[in-house]
Amino acid sequence: MSFFAILFALLIEQARPLARTNPIHAGLRAWALSVCRNFDAGKPHHGWVAWSLAVLVPALVTLAVHWLLLLGLGWPFAVVWSVAVLYVTLGFRQFSHHFTGIRDALEEGDEDRARERLADWQQVDVGALPRSEIVRHVIEYSVLSAHRHVFGVLAWFSVLAALGLGPTGAVLYRLAEFVSRYWQYKERTGVQPASAALQQASAQAWTLVDWLPVRMTALSFAVVGSFEEAIEGWRFHAQRFPSDNDGVVLAATAGAINVQLGGEALPARADPKTPQGLEIEADMGDSDSTPGREPEVVHLRSVVGLVWRSVVVWMLLLALLTLARLLG
């Protein structure tokens, strides 16, 4: 029933997206902060204990609820639970309003408003960023957000649901990404900072958790975009980016739509605001540029098409697997 759970979650999220300020995200921040405060003693093994508590405990609670509903009330209630979990963890509307606002401002020729929206989205100092660089950064942040909010969640949810673990994978993936970014944010702001050991443990865990999903995302971009160029970018240009996993997605995107990505990173604001949700992304770091055309506003529409076509491919694949399972 994974296909139907994902379909209903996406439809509900499009009709009524989760509010930017909501008790669920606030509770996650409080949980991550509490674990850091009580279990982060600065030693490497303390870092792994804190990460395990912050990520695995909620995932196991999600699994327990799934099995209780499945065994006690039946599979329809278990599907409803999966839809509810996916509604919180999966969705375009958790970041797409930023993308749409910047794209509309650029199409209207209002570059100042586009810079302001980009700065508010990522909490960065944009200065007098030229138009092509605004587009480049929007593309990079958007495809990474699409991967983390949609395709990565789909990958882990689908794999673990096929093993009978319900929506556990969606919670595991989103929390692994969130705590890694949130503890780095706390360190950067100096407000109840996380130790170096905890940050290292969460970063290593996130790299492992995201290893398979990024390659599945890159492959889907290649299938629906320019296949040969996307695969070539993945193979030969992913190492240009500081993060190996992010580099795979960005290099495949650059090849799929023939756009130049990579370059100088934007510096973080000196006085970052407290994040209201899960949409604030980590610093990307400087990198070398990939081959391709200079970023233009038309590439933003190409990114939208690339992402939505990839979603259709994922849903078709899940539908075929569901049909084969029902017929088998």
Summarize the structure.
Residues 271-293 are annotated as: Disordered. 73% of the residues lie in helices and 0% in strands. It is built from twelve helices and no strands.
Notes on the structure:
This protein is mostly helical. It has one domain (1-327). It is built from twelve helices and no strands. The radius of gyration is 20 Å and the shape is globular. The two termini are 14 Å apart. Belongs to the CobD/CbiB family. GO terms for molecular function: ABC-type vitamin B12 transporter activity; threonine-phosphate decarboxylase activity. It is a multi-pass membrane protein.
Give the helices and strands, then pairings.
Blueprint: H1 2-15, H2 23-39, H3 44-72, H4 75-89, H5 96-107, H6 111-122, H7 131-162, H8 168-189, H9 196-224, H10 227-237, H11 244-257, H12 297-327
Helix pairs in contact: 1-4, 1-12, 2-3, 2-8, 3-4, 3-8, 3-9, 5-6, 5-7, 6-7, 7-8, 7-9, 7-11, 7-12, 8-9, 9-10, 9-11, 9-12, 10-11
Membrane topology: Multi-pass membrane protein
Transmembrane segments: 48-70, 77-95, 153-176, 306-327
Subcellular location: Cell membrane
